[in-house]
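Hey, weird one. I pasted the Spermidine/putrescine transport system permease protein sequence into the form twice and got a warning about non-standard characters only the second time. First submission, copied straight from the form history:
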Amino acid sequence: MTATLTRADVVAAASSKRRRRVPGWIAVVPLLVFVAVAFGVPAIAMLNGAFTVKDQTTGATSYSTVNLTDSLQGAYLTALVGSVKLSALAGALGTLLGLPLAQVVVTSRFRALREAVLTASGVLANFGGVPLAFAFVATLGNAGVLTTHLGLKDKGWDLYSFWGLVLVYLYFLIPLMVLTITPALEGLRTQWREAAQNNGATGVQYWRHVALPVLLPSLLGGFVLLFGSAFAAYATAAAMVGSSVPLVTLQIADAISGNVLVGQENVALALSLDMVLVAGLVMAVYLPLQRRSARWLDA
């Protein structure tokens, strides 16, 4: 009996030793496989298509930068610049308007108000596409309820324009900014405000010299997130303004579907690559500042 128990103990110890030898990175393999399939394969396909040129006569394919060159000329360049302008303006306004709203939520003594605003922000930040376009068309369109009752059309208001699209985008960008900047506002130390007041600083001076410099990387991070959301938006603009406002996402859709020219699918992939490069440039500015802000807020 003793010998049997001893052998069992030896087997259990050997099995436990083998389990300990299993490297920990194996648990990450499913995530790596998912990332490779969901992001890696489309990225490789986009790069391959962006540099592939097909002869419309013979059907032969070759690698060239013609698609990238075409994507930075004419109507394609106008659409890319238009998307950058729209996204930058909507992102900046969303950042400026979302910050004070988030500050009110953080400093509010009413827990119900805080929870209601954050819950509503979570819902509105994900409300977009055709339903959002329809809501604004029914409200502020040429025959919308408010447009008719307030006589906005006679005053020059046009929802189906660049500024109309900015207004529609702010509907989901401001709540997104509230959700993004609220944790950073909660990270501001009460001792910093008290130290500033003890040294004779006013509220404006505290925000100018203490709070805003610390929050600046987080604000830039929120702006980058808002910029990316507006830059990649498609369904809302397509349903509301169509081709009246030049946007790169609409140009990509037209190139893929052949609404303007047939056989421009690879130009659409080149436009997608341009979008990735623009987003990469914005992120290159944001990441170093975010690390600097994290050192202050985690101190």
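That's the output from the first submission. The warning seems to come from a hidden character in my clipboard, not from the data itself. The chain is about 75% helix and 0% strand.
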